[in-house]
Every structure is written in structure tokens, then in C-alpha cells.
Write a structure and sequence with these properties.
Layout: E1 5-9, H1 14-29, E2 33-38, H2 43-51, E3 54-57, H3 69-92, E4 96-99, H4 106-115, E5 119-123, H5 130-135, E6 141-144, E7 158-160, H6 168-171, H7 174-180, E8 188-192, H8 199-215, E9 219-223, H9 229-239, E10 249-252, H10 258-264, E11 267-270, H11 274-283, E12 286-289, H12 299-309, E13 313-315, H13 323-335, H14 337-350, H15 355-365
Parallel strand pairs: 1-2, 1-4, 2-3, 4-5, 5-6, 6-7, 8-9, 8-11, 9-10, 11-12, 12-13
Length: 368
């Protein structure tokens, strides 16, 4: 269904943004008008600016968990953001709105309820977030990545679609991805702690980079997270001062194009957010998962254990991550290619490539 107008919303972290972008791209490719509603102070602003979609700003932040002045202030902030969202609905008159949860999507979805504009939600975790749980009853349809998430959703129209991932995961070849990054055709490890970075992973990774590239002749792509980049560089300069001349090593704060990074890789060291796992599966790579221990409802541990049960990953607890344990896990996969291939094969079996197509079809169906 083309030549319609859609609002897409979701932000704060890559887990909310990239599924939203995948759906936005599909709608735009079909000839629809797409606007993105997000917080201009967040990661989504940079990503959407790069994509070229018109960005509609709402200044809302995460809700304080304790009662007090900050909570009262937050409710005023939310109220102003809802009023601004209503003005966007009145001006652009979208046929439908698609939101991926998180506090950023709350104002426009509340505005949709008030203005009776149909909306659809997607939640990528085994344990849906607060915004999804509260606003799902009013949605025309709800998309979920996990079957077990249905128990938390009060809406009869629930679809289990997996996570929407970018079409490039289906088409990009490994050698093309490596060429784009200036790498050669040899075993490649991606180390990442999500868009924000992860100190435990970074500290352990810094200690093993030289061993990986020099002793094992492995290429490493290391995303530190923007907040942690300077600290990582300081550590690296002490441990491995010539790292910048190592052509087998790429160290950056953040990659706009994680599709190319993952498709270039054979092994990923990663947190266990649902979207990251979907993209790891779609790339057919083995993973060493280190779940974030303070994730809501402990969903990252649940995600990681599911991957291990399916034979697609190794597992380390955050408090157990250090130079020794990380290197042991990596060495196991680097030296035992049969084990590596088995994990990669199991990951690929879990991949769902049609999430975007299903969601776009369902989104079109909610338009009266």
C-alpha cells in the first residue's frame, strides 16, 4: 500500500531505533511518506538525519523510578510532548503510526489514543517494556519477537514476527563487507557492548587485542561505545602503543553501519539485547554473550540462555569477564573450527529474515 503517510517512533538505544528504521525504509521504498518522531538529544537523531527522513522532535526522557520533584517535572515534560505530538498529528495527518516501545515513543502513541489515530507497536524483548505493556491494549496490533512475551500483553491481536532487521542482512556478502572495512579475507572477531558500550567487555577486550591479532592472526572490529572511547584509547596506548598501525584491528566509538560489521565477522562478543541477537543470527555468526546484569526483568540473561540452549552461543556472566575468561572463550572458537561452524550453523537456523515484510503488511491492515 503506497502513497500513505506514516509516523515511525522509537529511540534511546539501537534496540529501539534499528527495528523502527527497518520498517521506515520498507515503507519509504514502497512510495510512502515517512516521518520519524524521536528525541533530538538521542542516538536516533543522528541516524535519522543520515537516512534523510524528516525528524519530528519530542523532548521526553526516561521516567524517574522514585517519587519526588523529578517525577512531577517528568510528568509536565511528558504532557508538553503529548501536546506537541498532537500538533504533529494535526499537521501531517498520518494514516498510521508504528512504535518500537521505550519512553521516546510514549508521547506520540498517547496522542494517537487521544486523536483516535491507529497505531501498531513492536517489542523486541522476551519481557516487554513498561511503555509497551501500558499502551498495547489501545493498539490496533502488537508485534512481538518472542512467543513468551504474549503473556505480558493485553491485546488479542498479537503477531510473533521476530525482530525487523534491515534488508542488507539478506544481500551483503562477507567478502564485500570485509572489503568495505578495509579488511582481508581471514577470521574476524567483532567486539561490541551495544550502542552505549560496556565497561566490563571493553576492559577485557583491551587486554586481549594484541594477542588476537599477533598470536592468532585474527582481525578484530572493536566498538567501544561513545562514552567509553577515550578511556579505551588511553588503556590501549599503555598496553599496545602501536595499535593504530595494526591493519588487523579497527577500533571505533560507534559504527553507523553495523550490518557491514556483523556480516564481515565470524565471531561476535556481545551483550544479549534481542535486536543484537537477531542481527547476529541473520549474519550466521557464532557469539560469546555477556548479558547486561541490570537489564529490566533480567531479559538479557533469558535471551542469552535461550541462544546457548539452541547451540548458537557461548555464555559469560558480566562479573566473570576478564582477560583470562574472554581469551579462553575466543581461543576455543578460533582453534576449534568445527565448534565454530556448529555455533554459526545453529545461529543461522534461528534467523528470521521476513520480520519487516510481516510487520509492514500488518501495519497497512490497521488503516481503515
Amino acid at each position: 500500500m503506497s502513497d500513505k503517510t506514516y509516523f515511525i517512533t522509537g529511540g534511546g538505544t539501537g534496540g529501539h531505533i534499528y527495528p523502527a528504521v527497518a520498517v521506515a525504509d520498507s515503507l519509504a521504498d514502497a512510495g510512502n511518506n515517512v516521518y520519524y518522531v524521536g528525541n533530538p538529544e538521542n542516538l536516533e537523531f543522528e541516524i535519522i538525519k543520515e537516512k534523510g527522513y524528516e525528524f519530528l522532535p519530542v523532548n521526553v526522557h526516561g521516567m524517574p523510578r522514585k517519587a519526588g520533584f523529578s517525577l512531577i517535572s517528568w510528568f509536565f515534560q511528558l504532557g508538553f510532548s503529548v501536546l506537541k505530538s498532537i500538533s504533529y498529528l494535526n499537521k501531517y495527518k498520518p494514516h498510521a503510526v508504528f512504535g518500537t516501545g521505550g519512553y521516546v515513543s510514549a508521547p506520540i502513541l498517547i496522542a494517537c489514543i487521544l486523536k483516535k489515530v491507529p497505531y501498531m507497536m513492536h517489542d523486541c524483548d522476551a519481557c516487554p517494556g513498561l511503555v509497551t505493556r501500558k499502551l498495547a491494549p489501545y493498539a490496533k496490533a502488537v508485534s512481538l519477537a518472542f512467543e513468551c512475551a504474549k503473556a505480558s500483553i493485553k491485546n488479542d491481536i498479537c503477531y510473533i514476527n521476530g525482530n525487523p532487521i534491515r534488508n542488507k542482512f539478506k544481500t551483503l556478502l562477507k567478502y564485500e563487507a570485509r572489503k568495505t572495512l578495509g579488511l582481508t579475507n581471514k577470521l574476524t572477531v567483532c567486539i561490541m557492548g551495544g550502542s552505549q558500550g560496556a565497561r566490563a567487555i571493553n576492559d577485557a577486550a583491551v587486554s586481549v587485542l594484541k594477542t588476537l591479532t599477533n598470536k592468532y592472526d585474527v582481525q578484530v572490529i572493536f566498538q567501544t561505545g561513545k562514552k567509553n572511547f577515550e578511556r579505551v584509547v588511553e588503556q590501549l596506548l599503555k598496553i599496545y602503543p602501536e595499535y593504530e598501525n595494526d591493519k588487523s584491528l579497527i577500533v571505533r566509538s560507534y559504527f553507523e553501519d553495523m550490518v557491514t560489521v556483523l556480516k564481515a565477522s565470524d565471531i561476535a562478543v556481545s551483550r544479549a539485547g534481542s535486536l543484537s541477537l537477531s542481527e547476529i543470527e541473520a549474519s550466521g555468526i557464532a557469539s560469546i554473550l555477556i548479558p547486561y546484569p541490570h537489564a529490566a526483568a533480567d531479559h538479557q540473561r533469558k535471551n542469552a540462555r535461550y541462544m546457548v540452549e539452541q547451540g548458537a552461543a557461548l555464555y559469560l556472566e558480566d562479573h566473570d569477564v576478564n582477560e583470562k575468561t574472554l581469551l579462553e572463550s575466543l581461543t576455543l572458537l578460533i582453534t576449534d573450527r568445527e565448534k565454530l561452524a556448529k555455533l554459526q550453523g545453529c545461529a543461522m537456523k534461528l534467523a528470521k529474515y521476513d520480520g519487516v515484510e510481516k510487520i509492514v503488511g500488518q501495519l497497512c491492515n490497521i488503516i481503515k
